From TrEMBL:
Residues 97-201 form the VWFA domain. This is VWFA domain-containing protein. It comes from Bosea thiooxidans. Pfam families: VWA_2. It comes from the Bacteria.
Length: 304
C-alpha cells in the first residue's frame, strides 16, 4: 500500500502523447471497418448477410499492436516511480578551483627548494587525497589565466602546474581578484557549488583592496611562507575574502586540514543531487516494448 501511495510519474507531461495516439488509432479503426462504411447505405439487419468474408475480419490489427506499443513506450518515458534510492552523486567529492600564484617571489628558497615547488608538492598531496574529485587550475601574476577547466584527471592538473613559471606570465603584479573571478566561473557548472584553494606566499596591499568584491564560493588560503615570516598581508587578504588561512607545515598537517575543508559538504547539503532521489522503473517496460516490435517482422503486417 505504501508503494501504491508513492506511485507517480517523474515526467507526467509525456502522458499527453497518448492523446494523439488514441486519435490516430480511432481514425484508422473507422477507416478500415467495412461494416462502418456500408452501414450508411445498407439496412443494418441485412448487412451481415450481404458482406462476404466479414466473419474472417481480423479482430487485432497491426494498428492495435502499434497503439499498444505507443502506450508502453509513453509510460516508460514518463518515468513511473514509487521507491527512493541514494543519489549516485551523494558520495562525490566537491569540486575545487586551485588558484596558484606564479610570480618571482614564489621562487624564494626559504621553503626548499622554492615556494613554487613546495606549492606543487602540496598540490600533489591534495590531489592524491581527493582522487576522483574535479579540479580546475588558475594561475595569476599581473593577470589571471584559466589553465585548465574542472577535470577529475589529477595527473593533467599536476603536469600543467609543473609547467607554470614566472617567466611565462605575460604581466607582473598580483591580480588575485581576477583569479578568483576566473575560479568562480570555472566552478559555475559544478553541481555541489565547489570551493576555491588559493596557494600564495604574500599578497600586496593594493591587491587586498580589490578582494572585498570577490565573495563567492568558500575560499581556503594556503600561506606558502616559512615560519617567522610577516604574514600581515595574507591575514588582511583572508579577511577581505572571508577565507580560512592554513600555514604551510613540513609534514602533512596542512594537507589534512585543507582536504577536510575542501571535502566539507555543509555548504552544499541542500544542493540538488544530494541525499536520495526517486528510482525510475520505466526500464522494466523495455523488454515488453521489444517483444511488441517483433510483430512487425511478420509477413503482410507492414507490406503485403
Amino acid at each position: 500500500m505504501d508503494a501504491l501511495a508513492a506511485f507517480h510519474f517523474e515526467r507526467p507531461l509525456w502522458l499527453l502523447a497518448l492523446l494523439p495516439a488514441a486519435a490516430l488509432w480511432l481514425l484508422e479503426r473507422r477507416s478500415s471497418d467495412a461494416l462502418q462504411q456500408w452501414r450508411r447505405v445498407i439496412d443494418p439487419a441485412l448487412l451481415p448477410y450481404l458482406l462476404v468474408g466479414s466473419d474472417r475480419h481480423q479482430r487485432i490489427t497491426p494498428s492495435d499492436w502499434l497503439f499498444l506499443a505507443w502506450i508502453v513506450a509513453t509510460l516508460a518515458i514518463a518515468g513511473p516511480a514509487w521507491q527512493r534510492e541514494p543519489s549516485p552523486f551523494a558520495g562525490a567529492k566537491p569540486a575545487v578551483a586551485v588558484v596558484l600564484k606564479v610570480t618571482p617571489s614564489m621562487l624564494t628558497e626559504d621553503l626548499a627548494p622554492t615556494r613554487l615547488d613546495r606549492a606543487r608538492q602540496k598540490l600533489a598531496d591534495i590531489l592524491a587525497a581527493r582522487e576522483g574529485a574535479s579540479t580546475a587550475l588558475v594561475a595569476y601574476a599581473g593577470s589571471a589565466h584559466l589553465v585548465l577547466p574542472a577535470t577529475p584527471d589529477s595527473g593533467v592538473v599536476l603536469d600543467l602546474a609543473k609547467a607554470l613559471s614566472p617567466r611565462i606570465m605575460p604581466k607582473e603584479g598580483e591580480d588575485l581578484a581576477g583569479a578568483l573571478a576566473l575560479a568562480r566561473r570555472a566552478l559555475a557548472g559544478s553541481a555541489d557549488g565547489g570551493s576555491v584553494l588559493v596557494m600564495a606566499d604574500t599578497i600586496a596591499p593594493e591587491a587586498v583592496a580589490d578582494l572585498a568584491q570577490s565573495r563567492g564560493p568558500a575560499v581556503t588560503l594556503l600561506a606558502l611562507v616559512a615560519p617567522g615570516t610577516d604574514t600581515s598581508g595574507v591575514a588582511d587578504a583572508a579577511r577581505a575574502m572571508g577565507a580560512t588561512t592554513i600555514p604551510t607545515t613540513p609534514d602533512q598537517t596542512d594537507v589534512a586540514a585543507i582536504v577536510r575543508r575542501l571535502d566539507s559538504r555543509d555548504a552544499a547539503a541542500s544542493v540538488a543531487g544530494e541525499g536520495e532521489h526517486w528510482r525510475e522503473a520505466g526500464y522494466w517496460l523495455v523488454p515488453l516494448l521489444a517483444l511488441l516490435t517483433l510483430l512487425w517482422f511478420r509477413r503482410g503486417w507492414v507490406l503485403p
